[in-house]
Amino acid sequence: MVTVESIIGYVRQVKREIPQPVTVADNYLWWAQHGAALARELDFVSIHTYPVWEGNDINEAMSFTIANMEAVRKALPESQIVITEAGWATVASEFGPRASEAKQKRYYQDMFKWAKANNITTFFFEAFDEDWKGNPKDPNGAEKHWGIFDIGRRPKLVTAP
């Protein structure tokens, strides 16, 4: 772990060197509980939210995501917040039937609709499955199956109209 003070030092150094906005990304909970000092140094706060990773199924996904965002907003009311990682695994030995292409499609559709209605910049994780991630002995591990395209570049259900 890098200390918050070290990260603040790096942020200040980067901001001196470049004109672009500077941010740091972490899970929503870290920001809500520990992010105030760092947030004051940033141009915007970058949060990650993964309902399925935290035990939620699709019917609770958006309420969980919205609660994540509200917790960060409450903790950091002066900060612009961007969701830089949100997604749904399509296969995951860790999640069982909570992982599926149909649930990924629904989460992306619900998330896009909510983010647009609330003017929240959101980046979905991720474009392509990454079969090299996670446990090499578990081809169905969650880390490998977040893409909207599979490893062979074939579109998943989420890309269908």
How does the SSE layout of this entry go?
Blueprint: H1 4-17, E1 25-27, H2 28-34, H3 36-39, E2 45-49, H4 58-75, E3 81-86, H5 101-117, E4 122-124
Parallel strand pairs: 1-2, 2-3, 3-4
Helix pairs in contact: 2-4
Key features?
single chain, 161 residues, alpha/beta, TIM Barrel, four-stranded parallel sheet, 5 helices, 4 strands, globular
Broad CATH class: Alpha Beta
CATH fold category name: TIM Barrel
**What is the level-2 CATH architecture name?**
Alpha-Beta Barrel
- Contiguous runs where pLDDT drops below 50 for at least 5 residues: none
Integer average pLDDT: 97
Radius of gyration: 17 Å
Give the class from helix and strand content and strand pairing. Answer: alpha/beta
Query: What does the largest sheet look like?
Result: 4 strands, parallel
The number of domains:
1
The CATH superfamily appears as Glycosidases
Order of strands across the main sheet: 1-2-3-4
Instruction: Write down the overall geometry.
Output: globular
End-to-end Cα distance, whole Å, is 42 Å
Tally of individual helices: 5
The beta-strand count equals: 4
Order of helices and strands: HEHHEHEHE
Report helical residue fraction.
25-40%
Amount of beta strand? 5-15%
